[in-house]
Amino acid sequence: HVQLVESGGDSVEAGGSLRLSCEMSGYTSSTYWMGWYRQAPGRKREAVAAIDSDGDTSYLDSVKGRFTISRGNKNTLALQMDSLKPEDTGTYYCATPRSRKVGSIPAIQALGVMNSELWDDFGYWGPGTQVTVS
């Protein structure tokens, strides 16, 4: 059974920084991409960043240049967030796909998978960590 736990969320002022971490347990594959998405009240699930098995990354346009996703190994994931803005407020979830069919794709496509209405069937995610930017 795959478990994901996020940490690092906090309340910060605009312009501040946070580093989110995700620890994964259970069976995972090093050939699968990993990513982060966020959810804010009144907004759709929004993919933020993804990193694929080749180390290539892809980001939501509004966070490019401010956020950096990185992977330590198949079981760890981080999101460095700099120059935070109020619109970055939300609950942040780390994510990994359930199967090779949706796992072995480039990072840019992984963003679309996390944004998909079928994500509930495709992925695993954790309980989330709250980020509040004022």
Descriptive report:
The structure is a single chain. Strand 5 (about 45-50) and strand 6 (about 55-60) form a beta hairpin. About 35% of the residues are buried. The protein contains three helices and eleven strands, in the order βββββββββαααββ. The strands form two sheets. Strands 2, 4, 5, 6, 9, 10 and 11 form a seven-stranded mixed sheet that branches. Strands 1-3-8-7 form a four-stranded antiparallel sheet, with no helix packed on it. The longest helix has 9 residues, at about 105-115. It is globular, with a radius of gyration of 14 Å. It is mainly beta and about 130 residues long.
Which keywords apply here?
134 residues, mainly beta, four-stranded antiparallel beta sheet, 42% strand, globular
Give a short overview.
The protein has 134 residues and is mostly beta strands. The protein has helices at residues 100-103, 107-115, 119-122, and strands spanning 3-7, 11-12, 18-25, 34-39, 46-51, 57-59, 67-70, 76-81, 90-97, 123-125, 129-133.
The termini sit apart by 37 Å
Largest sheet: 7 strands, mixed
Number of helices: 3
Taking pLDDT < 50 over at least 5 consecutive residues as the criterion, the unreliable ranges are none
Order of helical and strand elements: EEEEEEEEEHHHEE
Query: What is the count of β-strands?
Result: 11
Percentage of β-strand residues:
35-45%
Q: Helix- and strand-based class?
A: mainly beta
Tell me the overall shape.
Answer: globular
Average predicted local confidence, pLDDT? 92
Q: Whole-number radius of gyration?
A: 14 Å
Portion in helices: 10-25%
